[in-house]
Design a protein that fits this description.
mainly alpha, single chain
Length: about 425
Amino acid sequence: MRKKSVLSSTGFFRIWAAESISLTGAQITTFALPLVAAINLDASPWEMSLLVAAAGVSSLTFGLSAGVFADKYERTGLMHIANLARLAVLLTVPLLYWADALSVWLLALVTYLISALTLLFESAMTPYVPRLVGRDKVGPANSWLEASEAVGDVGGPGLAGVLVQTLGAPIAVLIDAVSYVVSSAALLGLPKAHPRDNGGADSADETHLAAIRSGLRLLRRDRYQWPIAVTSVFFNFFCSMFMATYMLYALRVVGFSPALLGVMTMLGGVAGLTAAAVNQRIINRFGIGPTVILGYVLPGITALPVGFVHLFDLPVTLTLIGISQFSWVFGIVVMHICVATMRQTMIPEHLQGRIISSARFMGWGVEPIGALVGGALATVSAVGLSGTIVVSTVGLLLAGLWPLFSPVRTLRTVEAEADAPADEKPTEPAGA
């Protein structure tokens, strides 16, 4: 956060402000849509899992293409397209709600489209940031971006819980829709960035499928990005199991109201702001690789008691869930900052779109599978909601152990990549 004066001259804080507003709105919808399904549509655990799965399906069907588009087309234009399309999609929700035509399947479709368009936005924005601020300022910039997401985590869930409980779904979703207009307005004055300006890998004779295949090959060859991508597969699978059942567990088993659930979720936003502020100190103390491992392990450790909180009195329940909410988001934000910085500094700018989207395809693509497994386990077995929470948290903890047996464990700084053998660095393929 001390780098504000340096980043200000780059125009970065226009993106940061836009992201803070947009992500707050996005958190409202992310939190509000499942609440509408659970409260207004009386959704079952299986139907709730469909909403979580819908977001992951977008990664499987569109994630790789989003990265190729980001390496091919002007990136600020792609961000505008994603924002305006998300506005249009979200406006359909209140219209359907007021027409009494809203269903779980339509909510799942909206979730899918919003997730796909967010992939497009993020695929364009991630390689745009180093171009805008310079590679020497990527670390501080990522800390601010994660802080903006934490702002959304702080304001979004609590506001969504109150809005849905008092005013209904249309107001909550309309606020999110307006946030994308504000986001695009903030982007208007920023410099354009076409990947070909930097010698991009895309060529006139390279097909879309060839570009996708090259991204997957380059990811597999990278000795740091590949183990992180594999770790994210296991972590996100169990994370989706947890998220698919946690809201119903909190509402129906623990007995939380929507407002209380939203307030507890806000602790994660406070944790995100804290993590963004102290992340660089942790990296300086332990190194960027060990900090990534810490970020993966911490959520599983502190979430283990959550599946048993319904057995305790309210003060103990609130304490255990509060510790889990805070530690979960703290670890993930620390990990996200480190991974984003590694990708933006170690991968050539003109290849970032396809390589990063390949990693997201793997990590985010398993989310619908994890969500459906969680929903099925909670619905058709004796395990139930609380048992599914326990299984998913054990899986999270085990997933965090994966990078311990990879080169990530010994990586101290991103500059260490300069010493990597040439055949282990991502380079443009001679003929895709």
